[in-house]
Write a structure and sequence with these properties.
Length: 314
């Protein structure tokens, strides 16, 4: 009998099957452990045309962009802050800001938005009637691509067009959850019902939320209004002046509210909660006697001064 011949049969086959199952279980255990330690990720997809129209109508009574100023930077930060509270264990990938421009060339306002951290501006075209073209397809493309590559687990969609239904369905097909955010309508609805039916959750922002970010344009300020209109020809303060004012406001708040209240903001650095950021902006404008709306670089200098003083005193 040849000693090198190994016995075969049911027992050997069973051992091979059990070994295969054990290897599969080890692989699944490693995969599940990796999934458990991988943070979820969310992104926001903002139809700027919808935001301007809905917020303008709600606060200023008009959808005409020429009739009001929208503090896009402040509003985007408020959206980021709200998402942070809703998805506390999730990290922000970025905010996608979709707008229209002739020949897809950025306006000055769109350039300022594009300079914001964690924000990507995507432009469709504007036709002769100032109607956006191609924005919905950009949203669908980005939303579907990020969901397909598992880059996001949750998508915040801020818009109202029925054409976005296909984008929602595509993202959901790849396992992402889609949350529709909107702005309160003056009457009726400003979001298509089929879109409301398809999403995983809904949220609406009311007049009080939107009011700080929309300002009706005026020809001039009379009677010594302490906040000069940025478009009124008044020279803007320097970054150093604004940084100093940011530190001054921080010092005032530390004295009035105490160190614990202010240092509670530190975990959110470099961001401030939306309400606090607006309070800082209003206080600074009063001290500077100049509007910082539409000045993204000065807004950043203001926060830099605020944070520098707070961190130096902790």
């Amino acid at each position: 009998m040849n000693d090198d011949v190994r016995p075969t049969g049911p027992a050997t086959d069973l051992a091979a099957v059990l070994a295969g199952i054990e290897r599969t279980n080890e692989l699944l255990t490693r995969v599940l452990a990796e999934v458990a330690t991988t943070p979820s990720t969310h992104a926001a997809f903002v139809d700027a045309g919808y935001v301007y129209a809905a917020a303008g109508r709600l606060v200023a009574g008009t959808e005409d962009r020429k009739a009001f100023d929208l503090d896009a930077e402040g509003l985007i930060e408020a959206f980021i802050d709200k998402a942070r509270t809703i998805f506390p264990d999730s990290r922000l990938l970025r905010v996608y800001w979709y707008d229209g421009a002739r020949r897809r060339i950025h306006t000055m306002e769109q350039q300022r938005v594009a300079e914001l951290p964690d924000v990507k501006v995507r432009l469709g075209n504007l036709n002769a009637n100032n109607q956006q073209k191609g924005v919905d397809s950009l949203i669908r493309s980005d939303l579907e691509s990020l969901a397909r590559h598992r880059a996001i687990s949750d998508a915040v969609l801020i818009g109202g067009d029925e054409d976005l239904v296909s984008a929602v369905e595509a993202a959901q097909g790849y396992g992402a959850r889609v949350h529709l955010w909107g702005i309160e309508a003056v009457d009726g609805r400003n979001q298509a019902e089929p879109l409301l039916w398809e999403v995983d959750s809904q949220r609406t922002f009311d007049l009080e939320f939107c009011k700080p970010y929309v300002t009706r344009r005026t020809v001039a300020h009379d009677h010594g209004d302490p906040v000069a209109d940025a478009a009124g020809g008044v020279q803007a303060p320097s970054r150093d002046e604004v940084r100093f004012v940011g530190a001054r406001v921080a010092a005032t708040w530390l004295a009035e509210r105490g160190v614990p209240w202010v240092t509670e903001l530190l975990p959110g650095h470099p961001y401030l909660p939306g309400s606090v950021d607006q309070e800082l902006l209003t206080a600074a404008e009063g001290l500077l006697r100049h509007s910082l709306r539409g000045h993204a670089d000065l807004r950043r200098a203001l926060r830099d001064g605020f944070w520098e003083h707070v961190q130096a005193r902790r």
